[in-house]
Design a protein that fits this description.
The structure holds two protein chains of two kinds.
Chain A: E1 6-7, H1 16-32, H2 40-63, E2 72-82, E3 85-93, H3 95-118, H4 125-144, H5 148-166, H6 173-204, H7 209-215, H8 221-239, H9 247-250, H10 256-265, H11 270-277, H12 279-282, H13 286-307, H14 313-333, H15 339-366, H16 384-398, H17 404-418, H18 421-450, H19 467-490, H20 493-501, H21 513-536, H22 550-556, H23 561-600, H24 610-634
Chain B: H1 6-20, H2 29-53, E1 62-70, E2 75-81, H3 83-102, H4 120-139, H5 143-152, H6 154-164, H7 169-202, H8 209-214, H9 219-236, H10 245-252, H11 255-265, H12 267-280, H13 282-308, H14 313-333, H15 337-368, H16 379-382, H17 384-397, H18 404-417, H19 421-446, H20 462-480, H21 483-500
Antiparallel strand pairs in B: 1-2
Chain lengths: 638, 515
């Protein structure tokens, strides 16, 4: 797959505006202060709408390029030039980044508009739109960067925006803690990504996509595998994949439009983008790809199992996101057969999950910000538009035939089986099982929220949301219905992405696609039926039942993911920190003082007399110097 | 124009003004402030002019001046700057006016029951004298002259801490002074040793850096002389385990003093590594490098963990600096162009971001009258501008891309990865810890419900905005476009790496072959 990156010219040379427009929006909104409070949301929406128009124009221009010239780069300026290291800030517009800029600006614009209503009563709405604009700018930089360093800048930029938005209601300690947790766990992943960048420079002398991909085939197999695994670590952090998944459900502390845009449709899929973008590296390491598929499988099952046990509507959707991104990881891990499929699921998921979150936000909006589904029920009749759009998103997510999720998820399960061998059966079987679990937890959510008898608090007066919120929901629900069909049959995504990933290999079917389809549909139907049987047929208790099986207990405790982090990292870390503070105060400093006191025989008055100081510090210095000198001389380095 | 003795003017101006202040009546506060600020701004303008006039591809040392001083011992009053010294002088020029703005009322209430003894006049006089001596220590190209400045700069800092500091200022000032003095004495032995060596090698004793750089010294002797310099610089920097004076000094110093102490004065240590240890003792440097790198990485992790455990905001910032100095030392002793350039840029960036962090912590303390983190909470709701500034400075401290510190930290880690992958990876783990200590402090002070003591806080006033905004702007500007500084620093680092005999003076291990 030899793709030439051509220099951008004409309209294609204005991709930088995509990043700069929302960045300026964020700067104006933040620096403008209170005097912009009245029009802040309009500025925020205008920049993203403008961006969307520009993105459409750019993608149209790119589509008009002749074959083989569908990848253009634009070097903006020299960023870090030091000797051999020449890092430029430059952009790459190719079919893959084109798909992302449409998703980010399109869904982004809808969610910005929705937020005008959703955040209407918040005194800090201007600040909200500033952070949202900042996010869009960083996310666009992430997907448009023409090398790993530029990608990393966007990568950390979205992390910052995510931090700011999770902590948007920072007076609530839970929100502040969740934001910090998200940033820290992302940083753990970032260590992997940045070390991968170091290895690229050490072995190839460059960090740009063009150079790295061109030189990849000359690298030792172990190096490529290491690169793959380090990039995977970064991807796991950003995308909430096991073992770095714990921050994503907590991130629901942020306002719901944030959950829709950042923690469902765009940012959390950056890990999938990273691996897909690095396809030329992953193509060379089967080990790395296999680990990616296993991470995907474990995560998709983990998210689906935990999602069945939660009562918080946003947390169920969050675990669903964890699980669905697991599907995408599974697909990208399958290599050339799976890249385009993963991106397809990423897009359809972007539509229906964003729509579901906006729907959940609409429900909360009408229910005094309640998130406990045990206090919902019977809302279908009170909010018709929310109900219908949410139901369409639900059907798309569980893979109801011919809706969006049906196309993308079925394809993933199919290519998983097709990957062959025992692993193929495990991956395919696991993904199919999780489809059943998905149907279960989503039906449970639907039933508890919209069906049955009302279990509302006394002061709840559910009502439909204003048009500024429902119109974006309607548009997203249309996407939930038709996106899959369109991207498979009308504008085939696979063909569009071929310049990036190469031609899709001829499938060597282990199980006939029609069989996979039918089986999956049966499993999904079983999941729906189970939810109907266990949830809908009986009264939903206002309080969660206490006497439950160990499995449900474990699922309620997110399979002890948080408990593990606390007992393995947090508490030992706190203990270590305290111990070291003690040692540094009383040990390192105190020992020299004490030693000097003992030798000088002035222990009691040491701190009062300056002569005591002189002696103690002179001694400590000489003592320290002596120790270091001896250590240096003892260790003979060449 | 460039024939003017710029460096001499840069030193003499604040020195004369500093002593001149003593002629101004003590209660003429406004006059004192204006003179001090005016002088420091002139220094800044001159430093900027020098930076613009400096030719990166020209001779290693520029703006060279040399005057006979003690001819009997070959000591000359010789000045000159390479790219490394130049950016440090620029940093001094930048930080001193900022510190003056932050210390606007320092000593104004002397003798009125505050327990502080110093007057405003003495504070600003010491500040200007300190500026002169700091410029001198970076501009000296004669090692004896360097030594004189190295010791002399302790005096004004001693008085700034001892007369204007917190409750334990005496303890902290004496501790600071003695640690530094002992280090300086060890260095003096090596300075004299160098003189003797030069007398033997070239027949005539000299302290001139360029002459000393060119003589080859017996490797075993090099090690002894190296250690004399190294210990002095390691105390100054400071590296673990020589660090215990810094948290006390940083916490007790007045905010302005703390900014200059950690932002500039400590950098003399890491500057000394680059200017003296590496070029004069290349064999010893290479021999000791792995051991020093162990100390550097230890410092990164140890400083970060200790920062996390602090309850005192100023001590916390001081401990973060210990971690940051670990990064700088890692960059210096990795012996690659990228890591070395990163280390020098780190020295500048750390002065800006930690300077800003100290200033903002100082603003909080001036409002809440407490250094304890637990006494604050929910400040973000009350003073959004202060909180925003705190966040930006904090993000720079944790090296977020888009801020200045990212570039330097990236260069240090990337440059050290080639020769020392394990150290580089361990140091990279430090970026997780950096996020922890910054965000923990930020959450505890800024987020959460508003504590009663915090309710009456006023947001940034015009003066505070005026002296803080240049630093905040530079955090972004140098984070997006660091090239002008890199272009000045890289040739000087290349020359230093050539002195120490680093192979190819680049981190690249494999062959590029792709361009």
């Amino acid at each position: 797959m030899e793709t030439q990156y051509l220099p951008a010219s004409g309209l294609l040379g204005s991709a930088w505006l995509l990043v700069v427009i929302p960045l300026l929006g964020a700067a104006v909104l933040l620096l403008g202060g209170r005097r912009l409070d009245k029009i802040g949301h309009l500025i925020g929406c205008a920049t993203i709408l403008l961006d969307f128009v520009l993105a459409v124009a750019l993608v149209a221009a790119l589509a008009g390029q002749p074959d083989g010239e569908k990848a253009v780069t634009d070097t903006l300026f020299s960023f870090i030039p030091v000797g051999e290291l020449q890092v430029d800030i430059g952009l790459l517009l190719d079919p893959l980044s084109a798909v992302f800029i449409l998703l980010i600006t399109g869904v982004g614009a809808l969610i910005h508009i929705y937020s005008v209503g959703y955040m209407g009563h918040d005194p800090d709405r201007r600040r909200f739109f500033a952070y949202m604009n900042l996010f869009v700018a960083a996310m666009l930089l992430l997907v448009l960067g023409n090398g790993y360093v530029v990608l990393y800048i966007g990568w950390e930029g979205v992390g910052l925006a995510s931090y700011l938005l999770i902590a948007f209601w920072y007076r609530r300690p839970a929100a502040a803690t969740a934001a910090k947790k998200a940033f820290i766990m992302n940083r753990v992943g970032d260590v992997g990504l940045i070390i991968a960048v170091f290895i690229m420079f050490a072995t190839l002398g460059s960090t740009s996509f063009a150079d790295v991909f061109a030189g990849a085939s000359g690298l030792a197999a172990g190096t490529v595998t290491a690169l793959g695994l380090l990039l995977l670590l970064g991807a796991c952090g950003k995308s909430g994949q096991v073992p770095l998944q714990a921050w994503l459900p907590d991130a629901m502390e942020g306002p719901t439009p944030v959950s829709a845009l950042i923690h469902a449709a765009t940012m959390v899929t950056a890990g999938v983008y990273l691996i897909a973008r690095s396809a030329p590296l992953f193509d060379l390491s089967e080990t790395a790809r296999t680990v990616v598929t296993i991470v995907g499988l474990v995560t998709l099952l983990y998210g689906a199992i935990v999602g069945c046990a939660y009562d918080d509507i946003k947390k169920v959707l969050a675990y669903s996101t964890v699980s669905q991104i697991g599907y995408m990881f599974l697909a990208v891990g399958l290599g050339p057969a799976g890249y385009a499929v993963a991106i397809l699921h990423l897009l359809t998921h972007g539509f229906f999950k964003a729509g579901l979150f906006l729907g959940a936000g609409s429900v909360m909006h009408g229910m005094n910000d309640e998130v406990d589904m045990r206090k919902f029920g019977g809302l279908g009749s009170k909010m018709r538009i929310t109900y219908i759009t949410f139901a369409l998103g639900y059907l798309a997510l569980i893979g109801f035939p011919f809706l969006s999720g049906y196309y993308s998820k079925d394809l993933i399960i199919e290519v998983a089986f097709d990957s062959g061998g025992a692993l193929g059966w495990i991956l395919g079987g696991g993904a199919m099982l999780a489809a059943g679990l998905t149907a279960f937890y989503m039906t449970r959510l639907m039933v508890m929220t919209f069906f049955g008898r009302p279990r509302w608090d006394k002061d709840a007066h559910p009502h439909e949301s204003p048009a500024v919120m429902t119109v974006p929901m309607i548009i997203l629900s249309l996407g939930s219905v038709f996106a899959g069909f369109i991207l498979v049959n009308v504008f085939p995504l696979g063909a569009w992405l071929e310049p990036v990933f190469g031609p899709e290999p001829e499938a060597d079917h282990v199980v006939a696609p029609i069989v996979v389809s039918i089986l999956t549909t049966v499993v999904v139907a079983l999941g729906v039926a189970a939810a109907w049987f266990f949830v809908a047929r009986r009264e939903v208790p206002i309080r969660p039942p206490v006497n439950v099986s160990p499995v449900i207990k474990a699922a309620r405790a997110n399979l002890y993911g948080d408990a593990f982090n606390e007992s393995v990292f947090m508490r030992p870390g706190q203990w270590l920190t305290r111990a070291m503070v003690y040692v540094d105060n009383r040990g390192v400093d105190g020992a020299v003082n004490g030693l000097a006191a003992g030798l000088g025989g002035t222990s009691g008055r040491l701190r009062r007399t300056q002569t005591g100081f002189v002696r103690s510090y002179a001694l400590s210095m000489l003592g320290g110097a002596l120790v270091v000198t001896m250590a240096f001389l003892a260790v003979r380095f060449v | 124009m460039s024939d003017l003795p710029f460096l001499l003017i840069l030193m003499v101006l604040p020195l004369v003004a500093g002593f001149g202040l003593l002629a101004v009546p003590e209660d003429r506060h406004d006059l004192i402030r204006r003179i001090t600020l005016g002088v420091s701004l002139v220094v800044l303008v001159l430093a900027v002019f020098m930076t613009v006039a400096f030719e990166p591809s020209g001779p290693r040392f520029q703006f060279v001046q040399s005057y006979s001083w003690i001819p009997d011992f070959g000591v000359r009053f010789a000045l000159g700057v390479d790219g490394i010294a130049l950016v440090m002088i620029l940093l001094i020029g930048l930080l001193v006016p900022v510190v003056i703005g932050a210390s606007w009322n320092e000593g104004a209430d002397a003798g009125r029951g505050t327990g502080k003894t110093g007057s405003m006049r003495t504070f600003f006089a010491w500040l200007l004298i300190l500026e002169a001596l700091l410029i001198g220590v970076f501009a000296a190209t004669d090692i004896f002259l360097f030594y004189v400045f190295f010791e002399a700069m302790l005096v004004p800092m001693y008085f700034l801490i001892g007369s204007f500091g917190g409750p334990r200022r005496q303890y902290a000032a004496v501790k600071f002074f003695l640690y530094s003095l002992v280090g300086g004495l060890v260095m003096l032995a090596s300075v004299i040793g160098l003189y003797v060596v030069s007398a033997n090698e070239i027949g005539q004793g000299t302290f001139a850096f360029d002459a000393l750089r060119q003589i080859s010294i017996d490797p075993d002797l090099q090690k002894l002389l190296f250690l004399g310099f190294f210990i002095a610089f390691a105390i100054k920097a400071p590296l673990v385990p020589f660090h215990t004076w810094l948290p006390d000094a940083g916490a007790e110093a007045p905010i302005g003093g703390a900014v200059l102490l950690v932002g500039v004065l400590d950098k003399v240590g890491t500057f000394g590594f680059l200017r003296y240890c590496l070029p004069l003792f290349p064999d010893a440097s290479r021999a000791f490098a792995p051991a020093i790198l162990v100390l550097a990485v230890l410092g990164i992790l140890y400083g970060a963990l200790l920062a996390m455990g602090q309850t005192d905001m100023k001590r916390l910032v001081a401990y973060t600096s210990i971690a940051h100095f670990g990064f700088i030392a890692l960059g210096v002793f990795a012996f690659t162009t990228q890591a070395g350039t990163g280390a020098v840029l780190y020295m500048v960036n750390h002065g800006i971001s930690t300077g800003a962090l100290f200033l903002i912590v100082g603003m909080l303390i001036s409002r809440g009258k407490s250094r304890t983190i637990g006494d604050y909470g929910g400040v973000s709701s009350v003073t959004p501008l202060l909180a925003g500034a705190f966040l930006l400075a904090g993000l720079s401290s944790l090296a977020l891309p888009g801020t200045n510190s990212f570039v330097s930290e990236f260069l240090v880690l990337l440059g050290s990865f080639g020769p020392y992958p394990v150290f580089s990876i361990l140091a990279t783990v430090g970026i997780i810890l950096a996020a922890l200590y910054i965000l923990l402090m930020y959450q505890r002070t800024m987020h959460g419900p508003i504590k009663p003591a915090v309710g009456g806080f006023k947001d940034l006033n015009k003066r505070e905005m005026a002296y803080l905004s240049p630093l905040l702007a530079l955090i972004i500007v140098l984070g997006v476009y660091p090239k002008p500084l890199l272009d000045i620093i890289t040739p000087a680092v290349n020359a230093t790496m050539a002195d120490v005999g680093a192979e190819g003076s680049t981190a690249q291990a494999g062959n590029g072959g792709d361009d």
